[in-house]
Design goal:
Layout (H helix, E strand, L loop, with lengths): L1 H20 L3 H21 L8 H20 L2 H25 L1 E3 L2 E6 L4 E2 L1 H18 L13 H15 L4 H18 L3 H13 L1 H7 L2 H11 L10 H12 L11 H4 L11 H34 L3 H25 L17 H19 L15
Antiparallel strand pairs: 1-2, 2-3
Helix pairs in contact: 1-3, 2-3, 2-13, 3-15, 4-5, 4-6, 5-6, 5-7, 5-14, 5-15, 6-7, 7-14, 11-13, 13-14, 13-15, 14-15
């Protein structure tokens, strides 16, 4: 009996190792290279020291990378079964922010868990994609066209978005909303529904403007005309543009950024880290990082298209869409194409929860890759998994 148990355990270990070897190592390499660029940029921000930002970011990356490998090796049927539970836990954490959340930089976005602080809104980005992929996988394609079938997933989106807006965190709320809209589109929701939603959103703009915080209104006004307050609210975006332009084609050189090291830029280790990189490495360095992001995005989309089950396709495409919106908004924000909303640059900006959740998201994408030939039952049969 003991021998049989031992054999079973060894078989499980062998299966896990086999799954690890089946990882998409090209995507893993791209993730590591992008993270190394982030470490180097944080090293430069801290003036050539590893104590301020780099050492802690290395630990966070190590934790996230380990979780990514574990998540990737877990059977995709588990993620199908656990999708709604994970969403429920993430939603409970968002509610906990309202009750016992920690305040930082004027916002209540974190839950203190002792050794570290967790930002539940980051967890919800992945949990929402999981839950929507599970929901749309469980209904027939023709049922997606029925409006009544969209009530539940719409509520699944609206509730966390409202909770995140209350923190307040407009940037993350937008990420959740845009990621969810992409999931609805990928699931086959009719275009007229999107048209109606856009018209309703436009009609609600005056109402929404009334409920925005003063600083949020100011950010939008500054986006439209940063020169209206060059030494006040428009100062940061103007300095960001100056730093981007001063880098030229090849940059000022590693550790040589003046706008960055002379503290002209705010939150340079998080929101404006792309500006720092572009100033020191120039247009070539900025386009190089952008190329890495685009190739990672192509990998994720290709993995989604190769999946033989709807859950895997929606999950990988949802993670890909969220990742795209992540880096697009950050880069567009620091270049003045969209208002400043406080979105970090994935795998590069300093931050614990954001780093770990991004890596877990890629772990799910690689789980789809490893189990791409698994055929998952639809509708009521999913309950039997």
């Amino acid at each position: 009996m003991a021998v049989r148990t031992s054999n079973n355990l060894s078989e499980r270990r062998l299966t896990f190792v086999q799954r690890i070897w089946q990882l998409n190592w090209g995507l893993v390499l791209l993730i590591v290279i992008t993270a190394l660029i982030g470490f180097a940029t944080l090293y430069s921000i801290s003036g050539g020291s590893t104590e301020t930002w780099v050492s802690r970011q290395l630990i966070r990356f190590g934790v996230g990378f380990t979780l990514m490998l574990i998540v990737a090796a877990v059977d995709i049927r588990f993620w199908l079964r656990a999708a709604f539970l994970i969403y429920g836990v993430a939603l409970a954490l968002l509610v906990a922010v309202e009750v016992v959340g920690t305040v930082g930089m004027g916002a209540q976005r974190w839950v203190d868990l002792g050794p570290f602080q967790l930002q539940p809104s980051e967890v919800m980005k992945i949990a929402l994609v999981l839950a929507l992929a599970r929901y749309f996988h469980g209904i027939a394609h023709e049922d997606v066209a029925q409006s009544r079938r969209l009530v539940v997933p719409t509520l699944m989106v609206i509730i966390p978005v409202v909770l995140v807006l209350r923190q307040p965190d407009l940037g993350t709320a937008l990420l959740l909303l845009i990621g969810a809209v992409s999931m609805f589109f990928l699931a086959g929701v009719r275009l007229w529904i999107f048209g109606a939603a856009i018209m309703a959103a436009v009609a609600a703009v005056p109402f929404a403007w009334h409920y925005l915080h003063d600083y949020q209104r100011e950010r939008i006004l500054i986006f439209l005309s940063p020169e209206r307050d060059p030494l006040g609210a428009g100062y940061h975006i103007l300095q960001s543009k100056i730093a981007l332009g001063s880098g030229g084609v090849f940059g000022k050189g590693f550790l040589q950024g003046t706008q960055s090291h002379l503290n002209f830029l705010p939150e340079i280790q998080t929101d404006f880290i792309f500006t720092m990189l572009a100033e020191e490495l120039g247009l070539v360095g900025a386009l190089g990082l952008l190329a890495l992001y685009v190739v990672m995005l192509i990998y994720a989309i290709a993995i989604a298209l190769r999946s033989r089950n709807q859950f895997g396709r929606l999950l990988a495409m949802g993670i890909a869409a969220t990742f795209f919106v992540y880096f697009f908004i950050n880069i567009a924000m620091v270049t003045g194409l969209v208002p400043v909303v406080g979105v970090p640059l994935p795998l590069v900006s300093y931050g614990g929860t954001a780093m770990v959740t991004i890596l877990v998201g890629f772990g799910l994408v690689m789980s789809v890759y490893i189990h791409r030939d698994v055929r998952l039952p639809r509708r009521a049969q999913t309950e039997e998994l």
